Amino acid sequence: MMIGIVIGITALTLIVSAGLGARQKVMERVRKFGFDSIMIWAGGPEVVPPNTGAPATTMTLEDAQALKQSIRSVADVAPLHRAQADVKYQDKSVTTMIFACTPTLGPLWDLDVVQGDFITDDDMTGLARVGAIAPTVRRELFGSSNPIGQQVRIGNVSFEIKGIMRAKGVSPRGGDMDDRIYVPLSTYMIRLANVDYIEAIRVQFKSPDNIKAAIPEITSLLRERHHLAAGLPDDFSIVTPTEITEVAQKVLGTFNILLVLVAGISLIAGGVVVANIMLISVNERRREIGLRQAMGARSRDIMTQFLLEATFVTLAGGIAGVVIGIAGSQLLGAITKMPVAISWESIVLGLVFSSLVGIVAGLQPAKKAAALQPIEALRA
Question: 46, 67, 206, 327: least surrounded by Cβ within 10 Å?
C-alpha cells in the first residue's frame, strides 16, 4: 500500500527541492546582473545580445556619454565591446572572449582584481596595450606561474598582462565569466579592431526605483541621437533585471508544472492502490467488523477506524518518501551539480499530500465497512 505513496512523495520532495534551488540560482544570477542596472545592446530585440551574424554598428561611445550627462537618475555608465579571439602565450593558445571596456566596468559589474591592476583612465587615454585576465584564461595559458608583466598576443598585437581578476563564476546568461581578458576599449577600437562603434552600454542608476521611469527617457534620447523617425523600430534593445527574472520564472514555472504532473500521477496511482487494498481488507475483515458492531461500535466508529488506517499508512509512506526525497535531492545535487534547497515547504507538502491521499482513498472502503450489518458480517 505504501509503495505508490512513497514514490509520489519522493518525486514531489525532489521537485520542490530542485525548484527552490533553481529559483535561488535565478535570483543569484539577477543579483550578478544588478538590481540597479540595465544593459543597452546595439541592434533590435531579435539580436540581444548580437552573438551571431554581422555586428550591429548603431551605438557609439558618444551615446554612453550622452546617457550619463542627460539622464539625471543615471549614476554611471560602462560602454563595452566583446569579441572572440585567439590569445597566445609562447607555444600556448586559447580562444577566449575579449572584453574591451572602460575603467567603470569594474565597479559597475563588481569586478575585483586579486593581483595587479584593472584598466585605468591613463590606459584609455594612452591607448595602452595592457590587459587583465580572468582565472580560466590564466590557468590555461600560464598554469601556476605568475602572468603579471608577461606579454600575450591578441591577433597581431602584443598586450602586457597587468592584472588578475577574481573568479566570478557563471554570468546571468549562463556563460563563464572567468573565461575573459579585459583590455582598454580605446585600444581595442583603434589598435586592434579599427571600429568606431560599441556593442553595449551598462547603465547603473542611483536607485533601483529609478529604472522604470528612466526607460522612456533613455529610449527617447537614443532614438533622437540615432535619427529614428516615428514608426521606425528601435535599433537598440534594453534589458532590465525585471525582464531577466520574468523570463527565468516562466521557464521554471513550465518545467515545475510538468514535474508536478508526474508526481501527481504517482500519487493518484498510489491512492488507487490504497483504495483497492482497503476494499479487499473490508471483505477479509467482515467478522472483525461484525464483532465490533455487536460490542456496541457505531457505523461512524467503523468508518473512522478505516479512515485512520488509510491515513496512517499513507502518512507513513509520506514520511518515508520525504526522507528518501531529501536524501535523493542531496545526491542529485552532488552528482549533477544542480542547485537544490531543502526547506520546510517540501516536508510539509509531502506530509499534507500523503494524508489527503489517505483520506480520499480510504473514504469509499470506510463507507463500505460502516454499511455492513452486524449479523451478515458475523455470518461471513
Answer: 46
Do 78 and 196 share a domain, yes or no? yes
Q: What is the pTM of this model?
A: 0.63
Number of Cα atoms under 13 Å in the Cβ half of residue 162: 15
| 35 found inside a domain | no
Evaluate whether residue 231 is within a structural domain.
no
Residue corresponding to grid cell 553595449? 200
Q: Assess if residue 305 is contained within a domain.
A: yes
Q: What is the pLDDT of residues 321-380, one digit of tens each?
A: 888 888 888 887 778 766 677 767 667 766 777 677 777 777 777 777 667 666 665 565
Task: Write the burial class of residue 77 (CB in 10 Å: 0-12 exposed, 13-18 middle, 19+ buried).
Answer: buried
Supply the range of the domain harboring residue 152: 73-201
Strands (E), the chain: 37-42, 74-89, 92-101, 113-116, 130-133, 151-154, 157-165, 180-184, 200-205, 236-239
CA–CA separation, 151 vs 302, rounded Å? 86
**3-state SS class at 54:** coil
Compute, in degrees rounded to 10, the torsion defined by CA atoms 137, 140, 143, 145: -40
Which residues lie below 8 Å from residue 360, measured CB to CB, with a gap of 6+? Answer: 271
Q: Which of 191, 184, 170, 166 is nearest to 80 (CA)?
A: 184
Q: Which of 2, 103, 60 is nearest to 200 (CA)?
A: 60
In Å, what is the CA distance from 27 to each residue of 35, 108, 231, 248, 338? 10, 18, 36, 9, 15
